[in-house]
Design a protein that fits this description.
The protein has 138 residues and is of the alpha/beta class. The protein has a single domain, classed as Immunoglobulin-like (Sandwich). Helices cover 19% and strands 42% of the residues. It has one helix and eleven strands, in the order αβββββββββββ. Strands 1, 4, 7, 8, 10 and 11 form a six-stranded mixed sheet that branches. A five-stranded mixed sheet has the order 3-2-5-6-9, with no helix packed on it. Strand 2 and strand 3 form a beta hairpin. The longest helix has 26 residues.
Length: 138
């Protein structure tokens, strides 16, 4: 009986440690997610969504799936520049801030155009904080 209690206690301690590590690991980063669509509202598959922290130059590239959905995980908080590119479409650029533990939603609409053309959005669609539904206009 003593051996079983010791084993149960040991297992409980390991489980608590793992859960604590998982919680701490998620608390200091943000996530960006959204969709990439064309002007008619159809999903753009295979679009590159490059997310760059302008203060540290840390970058991550996500690729949109067959539904146009993309996600960039484990982003340190800071000011970000997001460039969305796909062959046959104009590049779209947007900048905004991400906060600790924020799940931001940024949807993009691409216009058909030459690869050399680009669109820079100075004040476009708001970023939606998925945690509380608030809009952040950047």
């Amino acid at each position: 009986m003593i051996r079983w209690n010791a084993l149960r206690s040991g297992f409980g301690l390991i489980l608590c440690f793992l859960l604590t590590q998982a919680a701490f690991g998620q608390a200091d980063t943000a996530r960006l997610q959204g969709t990439v669509m064309d002007a008619q509202g159809a999903a753009v598959t295979g679009a590159a969504v490059k997310v760059t922290n302008t203060g540290t130059s840390f970058d991550q590239t996500a690729i949109s799936n067959e539904l146009g959905y993309y996600t960039a995980n484990a982003l340190p908080p800071g000011h970000y520049r997001v460039e969305v590119t796909q062959k046959g479409f104009k590049k779209v650029v947007r900048e905004f801030d991400l906060q600790v533990a924020q799940v931001a939603v940024a949807d993009f609409s691409l216009d058909v155009g030459d690869v050399t053309q680009s669109i820079t959005v100075e004040a476009g669609q708001p970023i939606i904080d998925a945690a509380n539904g608030q809009f952040n206009q950047e």
